[in-house]
Amino acid sequence: MPEKLTFLKRNFLIVVSVFFISTGMIGAACGQSRISGHIKYLNSANTFLDGVKVYLVSSVGQQLDSINSDQHGYYRFENLGQGQYYIEPQCNKPWAGGNSVDALMVQKHFVGLSLLTGLPLQAADVNNSNSVNAIDAMQILQRFVGFLTSFTAGNWTFENTPVTVDGINPVSHDFYGLCYGDINGSNLPPACFPHPTQANAGPDIVASSETTVILNGNVPVYGAGYWLVIEGYNYSLTDNSDPTASFTGVAGITYLLTWNIATACYTSVDTVEISLVSLTGMPCPGQPDFVYGGQTYNTVQIGAQCWMKENLNIGTMINGTLNQTDNGIIEKYCFNNLPVNCEQYGGMYQWDEAMQFSLQAGAQGICPSGWHIPTDAEWCTLTTFLDPSVNCSLMAQWTGTDIGGLLKEAGYDHWNYPNGGATNASGFTALGAGYRYNNSTFYGLKADNYTWCSELYTTGNAFNRSLYTYGSTISRLEGYRENGYSVRCLKD
Question: Could you tell me if 195 and 71 are in contact, meaning their C-beta atoms sit under 8 angstroms apart?
Fold first, then answer.
């Protein structure tokens, strides 16, 4: 009796020769790994199959990603979490290889004179019946002589095995395929043409004074080129298909772009890093620092604005149980009534004291001559310059992408963990100074930052800005005038 064959098919899936690279070799960071390898034809030459569409599929059949194999049949999927995956190649190369020799091999298998196994056995089931018999042999012969133009099973088949990754180590799979009916692997598949021109994204770019740069990709001879931004935000490209397009980003941000040249065969990719070095964070021209009230303050230029780099610390400390009064003496609070906290974080002031009892927006207040308490609009100018995603019209909501991180001092000297996103790329050096609530209690040291604006929101409340340790955003708030908040002065 002929052998009955039942085997699993999964949309031209292929997996063979699995091996794991040991932990001591290349590993993937952050609990992620990759699957990579080559797509080959199962013939004596192990011919690389280029231009094959390779799909990454989850264990429940969800298509996760795809890529075309390159001229070496190479494919690669990155950043994979722990689990089981399928690799599904789909080949559009023409059918070839099936002939009378293959038909005879199938017939011998059917009558038990020889045994087909593995991928050749799978390629013998041309009528997709889950068995190999004389009908398959006949159809192979019919297609060879031109009586048939296609098989029910299709043109190509690939080995099928699930791929398990541990989320840490890379996994390598070489996948083999055959044309249906080419049992002995006599086909030599033609190379895909044209291969794309090798992509060259040009040298990395460091711009020290501009936020717009000219890209320098190569012009494709074969294929269509296009730019993709892999890392970075708030950018624009004049034309993503132009190899010398103008790219505009945000000062202080590093971007990673790829220049991609694609044909129907595959896509050639090269990367370029663009660092828009910001002059932000430098001392203000002509006034890097100054002395006020016996203390030296540094300055920082952010866009067109010149800010004090430290919180103001001027005046005589009074106990947090008392209100600051219009008595001709600048009065301040120090967190928990400890002078050392004023030395580290600056003083805290009720709004009226900070404004020296003026209601004029942009008043000098307790700032030195030539400086003033910044307005709500000036705070908006600062934050949107650094992070254009900040919405200055929102009240009591966190806004922006990483404005808080750009403003906050990095590390944990003056902020509790996690100090979300803190880089201090702006040089502003905001500290977790905490605040004095209007009930005379101090809160939030190393956790919160509240800084006054010079405008009232209502009769009893004034605008301020808030940062916190758990995020990299900013909030526009209203606070009781009796609260004690930090003060940053802005140059006139």
Answer: yes
3-state DSSP assignment of residue 378: helix
Chain centroid to Cα 59, Å, comes to: 25
Is 40 in contact with 189 (CB distance < 8 Å)? no
| Residue 27 banded pLDDT, cuts 50, 70, 90 | very low
Coil, helix or strand at residue 390:
coil
Domains of the chain: 19-179 (2.60.40.10), 205-276 (2.60.40.10), 289-491 (no CATH)
The answer to whether 85 touches 42, Cβ cutoff 8 Å, is no
Task: Fill in the DSSP letter of residue 329.
Answer: S
The whole-number average pLDDT for the span 41-51 is 93
Residues 289, 283: contact at Cβ < 8 Å? yes
Q: Name the pTM for this structure.
A: 0.49
DSSP 434: B
Using the 8-state DSSP alphabet, how is residue 167 labeled? S
Measured in whole angstroms, the distance separating CA 161 from the mean position of its chain's CA atoms is 31
Q: How far apart are CA 341 and CA 344, in angstroms?
A: 5
SS3 (DSSP) at 110? helix
The sheet with strand 398-399 has its strands ordered as 398-399, 474-480, 461-468, 448-456
What is the average pLDDT score of the chain?
A: 90
With a pLDDT cut of 90, the percent of the chain lying above it is 82
- Tell me the per-residue pLDDT of 125-137, one tens digit each, with 9 for 90 and over: 999 999 999 999 9
Residue 232 is encoded by which pair of tokens?
Answer: 């970075």
Confidence band for 369, pLDDT divided at 50, 70 and 90: very high
